[in-house]
Write a structure and sequence with these properties.
Length: 217
Protein backbone atom coordinates (compact mmCIF):
# COMPACT_ATOMS: atom_id res chain seq x y z
CA UNK A 1 0.00 0.00 0.00
CA UNK A 2 1.10 3.55 -0.56
CA UNK A 3 0.56 6.38 1.89
CA UNK A 4 -2.85 7.30 0.50
CA UNK A 5 -4.11 3.71 0.63
CA UNK A 6 -2.95 3.34 4.24
CA UNK A 7 -4.74 6.54 5.23
CA UNK A 8 -7.88 5.40 3.38
CA UNK A 9 -7.81 2.16 5.35
CA UNK A 10 -7.31 4.13 8.54
CA UNK A 11 -10.54 6.00 7.75
CA UNK A 12 -12.44 2.71 7.87
CA UNK A 13 -11.39 2.37 11.51
CA UNK A 14 -12.73 5.81 12.40
CA UNK A 15 -15.93 5.64 10.28
CA UNK A 16 -14.52 8.44 8.09
CA UNK A 17 -15.03 10.82 11.00
CA UNK A 18 -11.44 12.01 11.20
CA UNK A 19 -11.23 15.73 11.89
CA UNK A 20 -7.53 15.77 11.18
CA UNK A 21 -6.31 17.67 8.14
CA UNK A 22 -4.72 15.74 5.29
CA UNK A 23 -1.29 16.87 6.47
CA UNK A 24 -2.04 15.84 10.06
CA UNK A 25 -3.06 12.38 8.87
CA UNK A 26 0.15 12.05 6.90
CA UNK A 27 2.15 13.23 9.92
CA UNK A 28 0.36 10.65 12.08
CA UNK A 29 1.19 7.93 9.55
CA UNK A 30 4.85 8.89 9.59
CA UNK A 31 4.92 8.94 13.40
CA UNK A 32 3.71 5.34 13.46
CA UNK A 33 6.09 4.42 10.63
CA UNK A 34 8.96 5.81 12.70
CA UNK A 35 7.81 3.76 15.71
CA UNK A 36 8.04 0.61 13.60
CA UNK A 37 11.39 1.16 11.90
CA UNK A 38 13.10 2.25 15.13
CA UNK A 39 11.72 -0.73 17.07
CA UNK A 40 14.80 -2.81 16.22
CA UNK A 41 17.64 -3.12 13.71
CA UNK A 42 15.63 -4.62 10.87
CA UNK A 43 17.52 -6.51 8.17
CA UNK A 44 15.74 -4.49 5.50
CA UNK A 45 17.28 -1.29 6.87
CA UNK A 46 20.89 -2.37 6.35
CA UNK A 47 22.93 -0.41 3.85
CA UNK A 48 26.57 -0.09 2.87
CA UNK A 49 28.41 3.21 2.86
CA UNK A 50 31.60 3.58 0.87
CA UNK A 51 33.94 6.24 -0.39
CA UNK A 52 37.52 7.16 -1.18
CA UNK A 53 38.04 10.55 0.43
CA UNK A 54 39.09 11.55 3.94
CA UNK A 55 39.36 15.00 5.47
CA UNK A 56 42.07 16.11 7.89
CA UNK A 57 41.05 18.69 10.49
CA UNK A 58 44.07 18.50 12.83
CA UNK A 59 47.38 16.71 13.22
CA UNK A 60 46.78 12.96 13.01
CA UNK A 61 43.02 13.51 12.94
CA UNK A 62 41.20 12.23 9.89
CA UNK A 63 37.50 11.81 9.38
CA UNK A 64 34.71 10.80 7.01
CA UNK A 65 31.16 12.09 7.18
CA UNK A 66 28.29 9.93 8.34
CA UNK A 67 25.62 9.24 5.70
CA UNK A 68 22.73 11.70 5.86
CA UNK A 69 20.29 8.83 6.50
CA UNK A 70 22.45 7.21 9.21
CA UNK A 71 20.55 5.70 12.13
CA UNK A 72 23.03 3.25 13.71
CA UNK A 73 25.96 1.02 12.87
CA UNK A 74 25.20 -2.52 11.77
CA UNK A 75 27.32 -5.51 12.76
CA UNK A 76 29.76 -6.25 9.96
CA UNK A 77 32.72 -8.07 11.48
CA UNK A 78 31.15 -11.43 12.30
CA UNK A 79 31.17 -14.70 10.38
CA UNK A 80 28.02 -16.56 9.34
CA UNK A 81 29.58 -19.64 10.96
CA UNK A 82 28.59 -18.89 14.55
CA UNK A 83 31.48 -20.93 15.96
CA UNK A 84 33.67 -17.97 15.04
CA UNK A 85 33.61 -14.42 16.30
CA UNK A 86 35.74 -11.28 16.47
CA UNK A 87 38.93 -11.94 18.39
CA UNK A 88 39.26 -8.52 20.02
CA UNK A 89 36.40 -8.83 22.54
CA UNK A 90 34.72 -5.74 21.06
CA UNK A 91 31.44 -5.17 19.29
CA UNK A 92 31.64 -6.54 15.71
CA UNK A 93 31.16 -3.10 14.21
CA UNK A 94 34.05 -1.75 12.18
CA UNK A 95 34.99 0.50 9.30
CA UNK A 96 36.89 -1.42 6.65
CA UNK A 97 39.81 0.43 5.10
CA UNK A 98 41.18 -1.11 1.89
CA UNK A 99 44.91 -1.34 1.45
CA UNK A 100 46.38 -0.31 -1.93
CA UNK A 101 46.28 -3.96 -3.00
CA UNK A 102 42.58 -4.27 -2.12
CA UNK A 103 42.69 -6.06 1.24
CA UNK A 104 39.99 -4.87 3.71
CA UNK A 105 41.44 -3.99 7.12
CA UNK A 106 38.93 -3.63 10.00
CA UNK A 107 39.22 -0.45 12.05
CA UNK A 108 37.40 -0.98 15.33
CA UNK A 109 34.73 1.58 16.22
CA UNK A 110 35.21 2.57 19.86
CA UNK A 111 33.02 4.63 22.16
CA UNK A 112 33.40 8.39 21.92
CA UNK A 113 34.13 8.56 25.65
CA UNK A 114 36.95 6.03 25.23
CA UNK A 115 38.68 7.82 22.35
CA UNK A 116 41.55 9.17 24.48
CA UNK A 117 42.65 5.62 25.26
CA UNK A 118 43.30 5.12 21.55
CA UNK A 119 45.04 8.40 20.82
CA UNK A 120 47.49 8.05 17.92
CA UNK A 121 46.91 4.29 17.74
CA UNK A 122 46.37 2.64 14.40
CA UNK A 123 43.23 0.65 13.63
CA UNK A 124 40.61 2.58 15.59
CA UNK A 125 37.95 5.19 15.01
CA UNK A 126 35.05 6.76 16.91
CA UNK A 127 31.93 8.71 16.08
CA UNK A 128 31.66 12.41 16.75
CA UNK A 129 27.87 12.60 16.61
CA UNK A 130 27.79 16.34 17.27
CA UNK A 131 29.59 16.86 13.96
CA UNK A 132 28.22 13.80 12.12
CA UNK A 133 31.61 12.31 11.42
CA UNK A 134 33.71 9.20 12.00
CA UNK A 135 37.13 10.20 13.31
CA UNK A 136 40.20 7.99 12.96
CA UNK A 137 42.78 7.98 15.72
CA UNK A 138 45.59 7.69 13.20
CA UNK A 139 45.78 8.31 9.48
CA UNK A 140 44.35 5.22 7.73
CA UNK A 141 46.44 3.13 5.37
CA UNK A 142 44.39 4.40 2.42
CA UNK A 143 41.36 6.56 1.71
CA UNK A 144 39.09 3.81 0.42
CA UNK A 145 36.54 2.75 3.05
CA UNK A 146 33.23 0.99 3.55
CA UNK A 147 30.97 0.05 6.45
CA UNK A 148 27.44 -1.19 7.07
CA UNK A 149 24.76 0.78 8.82
CA UNK A 150 21.06 0.95 9.62
CA UNK A 151 19.46 3.69 7.61
CA UNK A 152 16.49 5.93 8.29
CA UNK A 153 13.89 5.57 5.54
CA UNK A 154 12.52 8.76 3.99
CA UNK A 155 9.16 9.96 5.26
CA UNK A 156 6.16 8.48 3.51
CA UNK A 157 4.19 10.54 1.03
CA UNK A 158 0.75 9.77 -0.37
CA UNK A 159 2.43 8.13 -3.37
CA UNK A 160 5.23 6.17 -1.67
CA UNK A 161 5.15 2.90 0.24
CA UNK A 162 6.87 1.59 3.39
CA UNK A 163 10.21 -0.09 2.76
CA UNK A 164 9.14 -3.36 4.39
CA UNK A 165 7.07 -6.10 2.75
CA UNK A 166 3.52 -5.13 1.77
CA UNK A 167 2.16 -8.13 3.69
CA UNK A 168 2.77 -6.11 6.87
CA UNK A 169 1.67 -2.60 5.86
CA UNK A 170 -1.53 -3.11 7.84
CA UNK A 171 0.48 -2.55 11.03
CA UNK A 172 0.54 1.16 10.20
CA UNK A 173 -3.25 1.27 9.92
CA UNK A 174 -3.68 -0.18 13.41
CA UNK A 175 -0.89 1.98 14.76
CA UNK A 176 -2.66 5.10 13.53
CA UNK A 177 -5.92 3.91 15.07
CA UNK A 178 -4.43 3.57 18.54
CA UNK A 179 -2.58 6.88 18.49
CA UNK A 180 -3.35 8.84 21.66
CA UNK A 181 -4.78 11.82 19.83
CA UNK A 182 -7.15 9.64 17.82
CA UNK A 183 -8.26 7.78 20.95
CA UNK A 184 -9.20 11.10 22.54
CA UNK A 185 -11.04 12.39 19.48
CA UNK A 186 -13.21 9.44 18.54
CA UNK A 187 -15.38 7.32 20.80
CA UNK A 188 -15.34 4.46 18.30
CA UNK A 189 -11.57 4.51 18.14
CA UNK A 190 -11.49 4.56 21.92
CA UNK A 191 -13.85 1.62 22.17
CA UNK A 192 -11.72 -0.43 19.77
CA UNK A 193 -8.36 0.72 21.09
CA UNK A 194 -7.54 -2.63 22.76
CA UNK A 195 -8.41 -4.52 19.57
CA UNK A 196 -6.29 -2.22 17.41
CA UNK A 197 -3.42 -2.45 19.88
CA UNK A 198 -3.64 -6.24 19.80
CA UNK A 199 -3.66 -6.29 15.99
CA UNK A 200 -0.74 -3.86 15.88
CA UNK A 201 1.27 -6.13 18.18
CA UNK A 202 0.37 -9.20 16.12
CA UNK A 203 1.61 -7.53 12.93
CA UNK A 204 4.77 -6.43 14.74
CA UNK A 205 5.36 -10.04 15.80
CA UNK A 206 4.82 -11.21 12.22
CA UNK A 207 7.21 -8.57 10.93
CA UNK A 208 9.81 -9.65 13.49
CA UNK A 209 9.36 -13.25 12.34
CA UNK A 210 9.89 -12.22 8.71
CA UNK A 211 13.01 -10.33 9.77
CA UNK A 212 14.35 -13.40 11.57
CA UNK A 213 14.03 -15.47 8.38
CA UNK A 214 16.51 -13.16 6.70
CA UNK A 215 19.17 -13.74 9.35
CA UNK A 216 21.66 -16.48 8.61
CA UNK A 217 22.63 -17.38 12.18
Amino acid sequence: MNGQQIIDKFHTYTDDQSELSSQEELDLLNNVYQDVYTERHWVWLKKQASGNSFTSFATNAWYINLPTDFLAFAENNNMTDDTYGPNNNAAPKVVFIYTPDGVPVPYQIVNFSDRRQYFNKNGYCYVDYANNRIVFTQQPVSQQYEFDYIYKPPALTLATSPVFDSDYHQILVHGMAIDHEIIQLFDRAHSYAPENRDKYQKYLTKLAWANAQLLLN
